[in-house]
Design brief:
Number of strands: 9
Helix content: 25-40%
Distance between the termini: 23 Å
Largest sheet: 5 strands, parallel
Strand content: 25-35%
Order of helices and strands: EEEHEEHEHHHEHEHE
CATH class of the largest domain: Alpha Beta
Number of helices: 7
CATH architecture of the largest domain: 3-Layer(aba) Sandwich
Number of domains: 2
Structural class: alpha/beta
Strand order of the largest sheet: 6-7-8-3-9
Shape: globular
């Protein structure tokens, strides 16, 4: 499970007379195995900030964040990277890849880094790219030249090809049409059935109603 204990987060604005902005105070949250919790709240309320703290991009000002009983606020960078590579997937709204690396290599490399044979990784990548309607003619091209919706599907494929026990989803369906939204929902449902622990941000209320087990308004953490 993922567990947040007495989490507080403040930012110091040194360019504005060292003003202190408190984002969260004394957050306590437990997300159980096989559960999907959706963060809600207006834009700027701190949903993504909280997600980035769970992923280890931001350190809390106070408190502990336990992922699989490991407090990620107290581990070194190498151990954090190990958790990300083997246990925790993160899908954001933006694709970040090395230019000129092909779509097929980007997706299959996620499995190869986990120890899969290249042939098996390529087969699984092909299956997932087909499912997400990425035309075969694009597989050997860099996704940086693709449309926004295509890039987002590559983002999803790269993460979901791995059988992580934890996933953080930051608007994974934001750039997708209805057909591909349903396909991503199918993939998320499969993760839940496999016991994956998921925290997500979905601005579309209909999507939240379909897949979330709980909704938590982050404004309650102020």
């Amino acid at each position: 499970m993922i567990e947040l204990k007495d989490i507080s987060k403040s930012f110091r604005l040194y360019t504005q007379n060292s003003a202190k902005i408190t984002v969260f105070k004394d957050v306590n949250l437990t997300v159980n195995r096989g559960e999907l919790v959706a963060f809600t709240g207006k834009s700027g309320s701190g949903k993504t900030t909280l997600m980035k703290m769970i992923y280890g991009n931001y350190l809390p000002s106070k408190g502990s964040i336990l992922v699989d009983k490991t407090d990620i606020t107290k581990i070194n960078l190498q151990d954090l990277i190990r958790i990300r590579n083997h246990k925790m997937g993160y899908i954001s709204q933006f694709l970040r890849v090395i230019p000129r690396v092909s779509t097929m290599n980007i997706v299959s490399d996620s499995l190869i880094k986990l120890g899969s044979e290249k042939e098996d990784a390529l087969a699984q990548a092909s299956e997932l790219l087909n499912f997400l309607d990425i035309p075969r003619k694009l597989w050997n091209l860099s996704p940086l030249t693709f449309s926004g919706g295509e890039q987002q599907r590559i983002n999803i494929a790269r993460a979901m090809i791995c059988n992580y026990p934890y996933f953080l989803l930051d608007e994974p369906t934001a750039s997708l049409d209805n057909k591909n939204i349903e396909k991503v929902i199918t993939l998320i449902d499969k993760l839940k059935k496999n016991g994956c622990t998921i925290i997500g941000i979905f601005h579309d209320e209909m999507i939240r109603n379909e897949i979330a087990d709980r909704e938590i308004d982050v404004n309650s953490f102020k």
